[in-house]
Amino acid sequence: MNYRGLAKEIELKIHSDRPARKWPVEAFFKWGTFAFAFLIIVLLIWMIIAIAIQSQLSLEKFGFQFLTSTDWDPVKGLFGALPFIYGTIVSSIVAIAVAAPISIGVALFLTEMAPKWLRTPIGFLIELLAAIPSILFGLLGLFVFVPFVREWIQKPIGKILGWFPLFSGAPIGLGMLSAGLLLAIMIIPIITALARDIIGNVPNIQKEGALALGATRWEMIWKVVLPYARSGILGAVILGLGRALGETMAVTMVIGNRAEIKASLFAPSHSMAAVIANEFTEATGDLYLSSLIEVGLILFLVTFLLNALARFLIWSVAKGPKGGIRA
Amino acid sequence: MTDIILKSNLGRRKFVNRLMLGIVILLTALAIIPLICIVGYIIYKGLPAINWDFFTKLPVPVGESGGGIGNSIIGTLILVAIASVVGIPIGILSAVYLSEYKPAGAFSSCVRFVVDVMLGIPSIVLGIFAYLTFVKPFGHFSAISGGLALALLMIPIVGRSTEEILKLVPNTIREGAYALGVPKWKTILRIVLPYATKGIVTGVMLGVARVAGETAPLLLTAFGNHFWSKNINEPIASLPAQIFEYAKSPFDDWIQKAWGAALVLIVLVLTLNVIARVITRGRFKNAS
Q1: From A35, which residue of chain B is nearest by alpha-carbon distance?
Q2: A285 lies in a domain?
Q3: A108 in contact with B at a CB cutoff of 8 Å?
Q4: Does residue A33 sit within a domain?
Q5: Structural domain of residue A134, as residue ranges?
Q6: pLDDT at position B287, please?
Q7: pLDDT tens-digit profile of A220-261?
Q8: Number of domains chain B contains
Q9: How far is A264 from chain B (nearest CA, A)?
Q10: What is the ipTM of this complex?
Q11: Taking a C-beta distance cutoff of 8 angstroms, is the pair B84, B71 a contact?
Q12: Residue A72 in 3-state DSSP?
């Protein structure tokens, strides 16, 4: 880097006889940057207030019933968000159930098992997976993944376990299962990245202790690494859950967009984010719009709480006892 | 832990060790296969759609052959430019305050928490906010509202990464500047930020890549059109929204175009990502 210009300026200042002008640049710069930091807080508060105010109409009309009613009928002016809440929660649970073990496995591979030369390229590929826009997941999901799920997952499972309510119904592809599995692929890189950092924070001295006692590598991981990182990994999974809940485009394209509650994972369903994306610009009437905004408000509050919880869990590991103190 | 000492168990323990190693490798493969499939399949389906007209022509109605998505490519560039002009300064300058002026304290913790929260807000919710603030009062969809919605996504990404990078700038070079009598603001502008340029650029590029592919907020704000946009106060087309529109359609010709647009988008996003990572890697090599 070239600091010569600055050095020259300083030299000039030192050798010049006139006193330096006293512009309040320092204060200006400090309070300028402060203003931007403050702006971020203002933005969030503004966001909460704006969304809350605009959902007032629906809040007053339906109250708590909004969360428990399954009627979503714009023509009659009845709005209940339960089908969307249900669809969001179930598809996210499917996603977490699939993604969490895979992500933890990848994180373990990258931190404890893979040879050094392999860690960077594989970590890089996982990060690239996180960079792919969700609309592309949706596109591929619609044309490739949905038929794949129908032929290779739903039909075989339906044949064997079709009597079980969770797997009953016609294998049409579009639906809860496809959405959940697609979400799983999308959140794997997020959980992996966090879990990798957390597992990397486990003190070496504890791992060495286990190995010195004769533990195999897996025993070291199972009895030392994972217990130490437990709450942090839980935080990572919750953060992944938060991402899955709010995912919009990919889910919209594969979940089937039908506001019904069915026990079967094969049935088409709907989600909170998807209903906003699909109906927002076509919503006629204030109540309809207000109901959609309230769905957004619920989505916001839920992801907010999950994020706060996850940060707390991850933070407790990052600040946790180090080295040999912990038994 | 007594079972660890028993020698008779050793064979079984070694077997479990290998088995779990194998499972972990299998899981890693499971995580990487989708990436290869996605990129490979988009290239395979998208390449036939790519030609000169595809980049330079406007979309045509169903039934007519030819046409392209030129306006969507330009639209995405305009939207990203608006988002960058608004989002990057806010992100970087707030990070400067947090890192250089107030590393600790209630206000800074509060800002950091808010940035974390904003990172986790679903993009569709940001879209609702942008709609309520920038679309509804004016009564029409616009490129500006779309760009501002994307800026909301960009601020926390750029802010977070900039703060992390500024933390890595060694204190000794700040002290060196102070010792020479350089005022603090000039130290920041001339010493600290230049030192961290590579890292900041990386964060900015990742932010740009993220918002370039974002769709959901644009459906509520920029909406889309089928013309060359002349006015940022009017609706504007974008690559992701165009892909969504074409993918939902029942026409083979349009679906074909969706794949072509997907190829353009994925090349754009992955290129930005790869360059960003390469820059950072070079930086860490210098440091060690």
Answers
A1: B94
A2: yes
A3: yes
A4: no
A5: 59-325
A6: 38
A7: 999 999 999 988 899 999 999 999 999 999 999 999 888 888
A8: 1
A9: 25
A10: 0.89
A11: no
A12: strand
Q: Are strands A72-73 and A78-79 parallel, antiparallel or unpaired?
A: antiparallel
- Point out the residue among B129, B156, B194 whose CB comes nearest to the CB of A50: B129
Residue that has been written with the tokens 């044309």 in this structure: A143
Decide if B66 is inside a domain.
yes
In-domain check, residue B20: no
List, in sequence order, every residue forming a beta bridge with A72; answer none if it has no partner. Answer: A79
- Give the range of the structural domain holding residue B102, as residue numbers without chain letter: 54-287
Q: Is B238 within a domain? A: yes
Contacts of A58 in chain B (CB under 8 A): none
Q: How far apart are CA A281 and CA B273, in angstroms?
A: 32
CATH number for B112: 1.10.3720.10
Tell me how many residue pairs between chain A and chain B have CB atoms under 8 A apart: 273
Q: Would you call A294 an interface residue with chain B, using a CB distance cutoff of 8 Å?
A: no
* Residues B265, A135: C-beta atoms closer than 8 Å: yes
CA proximity to A102, closest of A126, A82, A70, A66: A126
User: Is residue A19 a part of any domain in this protein?
Assistant: no
Cα torsion through B71, B157, A237, A225, rounded to 10? 130
What pLDDT, on the 0 to 100 scale, is given for residue A293?
95
- Partners of A73 in beta bridges: A78
Q: What are A112's two structure tokens?
A: 């404890």
**Number of structural domains in chain A:** 1
Q: What is the pLDDT of residues A139-160, one digit of tens each?
A: 999 999 999 998 888 888 888 8
Which residue type is seen at B186? K
Chain A residues closer than 8 Å to B169 by CB: none
Please write the tens of the pLDDT for every residue from A120-130: 899 999 989 99
Q: Which residue of A has its CA nearest to B18?
A: A218
CB contact under 8 A, A276 and B124: yes
In a domain, A148, yes or no: yes
Mean pLDDT within B81-95: 96
**CATH number where A207 lies:** 1.10.3720.10
Q: Give yes or no for A286 touching B (CB within 8 A).
A: no
Per-residue pLDDT, A153: 87
